Amino acid sequence: MLTVIAVTKQLSQTAEAEPYLWALAVAVLLGLVAGYAAVWLFLRQTRRLSCEQAQSHLVLAKREAAVAAQEIINKAEEDIRNREADLNRDLDRRKIEIELMLREIRSHEESLGLLDYQLEQRQDRLAREAAAITQARDAMRDLSKSLRKRLEGVASLDGEEIRKQLRDEVTFECQEELRALRKELLERSEQDLVQEGKRILVATMQRLASKPNNDLTATIVQLPTEEMKGRIIGREGRNIKSFEAATGTTLLIDESPQMVLISSFDPVRREIARMALDGLVKDGRIHPASIEEFVGRARQELDLHVAQIGESAVDQLKISGLHPETIKLLGKLRFRFSYTQNVLDHSIEVAQLCSMLASELGLEPNIAKRAGLLHDIGKSIEGEYEGSHAIIGADFIRRYGETDIVVNAVAAHHAEVKPETVYAGLVILADAISASRPGARAESMTSYIERLGRLERLAMTMPGVQQAFAIQAGREVRVVVQPSVVTDEEAHALAKTLRLKIEQELDYPSTIKITVIREQRYTETAT
Fold it and tell me: Which of 142, 379, 398, 456 has minimal Cβ neighbours within 10 Å of its Cβ?
């Protein structure tokens, strides 16, 4: 700029400069001024845009920070809710455990009260017996003294007669000691038998490793595509109606992806329906005629599969000589359940327990194993036969050549028939062990508590009952009656009546022991 001004001044000082040089100098000067102004405006506009962009970035950053903060708050709130739910679940579980512990404590208190009462009665009895023994001993001593005096006075008696009288005297003096010794020996023998029985049971149960079972009332069948559901339903639902009519099951098709549900309380029908539906899905041709064909084929395949299952169970236990019809019924037990326990697995377990118990007792293990395997075979016999599963099962195996020992053990395992051999007792014992072991016939905590409540309420409906406690996981109920209302004979009758009501009105696993307690105390204070 200074250079231009200097040049302009130099031109103005030159007299010979032409007019166009003046015009050029003015144009250059105006151009420089315009360029400076443009640069200044451009820099100002750039600064303004930079400030606006920085402001927008600041606003965006604040929004992102607010969103991130809200996400953190939401996540923290969700974690707090999850922890609160976990704490509530843990609190509910602990409440249930505390309630169960309180019930056990109350049952133990009742047991201790009963034991205290029995101890007092035993102490009273021992005191009376001790007083009677002391009195008898004093009487015998007096009699012995008088006898010696008489013997001393009869010196004329011969030696043999004197020895006989002395022998009778010694025998009379030792009679009470012999009676006490005999009682002690009998009590010791009974205790030894109980200890030996417990040892055999514990040793046998420890040798058998079992697994828990689960009961199912529905079977899930996977489908290759969602389009297959429409083909299974058919036009106006004729395919699904034909399938349900042919199998006797209910086919549930909902929004679950690529799966349908076969529902039926009969596991044999459910298995036939599963096999038929698998075949139809793989074949792809689904219409009433093909449904009938695949259901019939599934029944034939299941009959063959049942026979193979029975053969496998017999081979596992190394039992020979069973009739093919008996083996077929054993295979059907695979599809029967008692609560959550599979009946075939239960029968195999009972057979193994019977075999081990028989070996411990020196009996024939093969006979015991055979009776244990066949004890529940009546559960797979169709419903047209009348009677309990123990009776009809015994009649069935009798027709197919089983021995009287095995037949009686099967018929007597629920005490419907009197046991005739020790093998029947082994089957009863092994059946109770297999059914009552932990995990055999599991049930939910809700149904467990409800079953105990029903048992206690049923006991409280009996006349004269003061308290009722279900203990040992519902396998025993202890009933305390009012002694002023219920006599000893009526207490015995009440126990029998309560047993009949439990058998008629309640559904329970294994057995329930009923104990009726009638206690009456009299207290006086001497001053």
Answer: 142
**426 and 459 belong to one structural domain:** no
Given a cut of 70, whether residue 521 has pLDDT beyond it is yes
Which of 371, 379, 378, 372 lies closest to 336 in space, CA to CA?
379
Please give the full DSSP string across 381-395, using - where no structure is assigned: S-TTS-S-HHHHHHH
* Contact assessment for residue 477 and residue 458, using Cβ atoms and an 8 Å cutoff: no
Q: Where are the alpha helices (DSSP H) in 248-287?
A: 267-283
Domain with 344, as residue range(s), is 318-436
Q: Single out the residue of 485, 483, 480 nearest to residue 469, CA to CA.
A: 480
Q: Could you give phi then psi for residue 231, rounded to 5 degrees?
A: -70, -35
Q: Which residue has the tokens 């041709």?
A: 285
The phi, psi pair for 468, rounded to 5°, reads -145, 135
Q: Among 173-177, 194-198, 294-298, where is mean pLDDT lowest?
A: 194-198
Please, are residues 421 and 409 in contact by the beta-carbon 8 Å criterion? yes
pLDDT bracket for residue 214 (50, 70, 90): very low
**Pair (149, 193) in one structural domain:** yes
Residue with tokens 């009679």: 175
Bridge-based pairing of strands 476-481 and 513-518 is: parallel
Lowest mean per-residue pLDDT among 233-237, 321-325, 471-475: 471-475
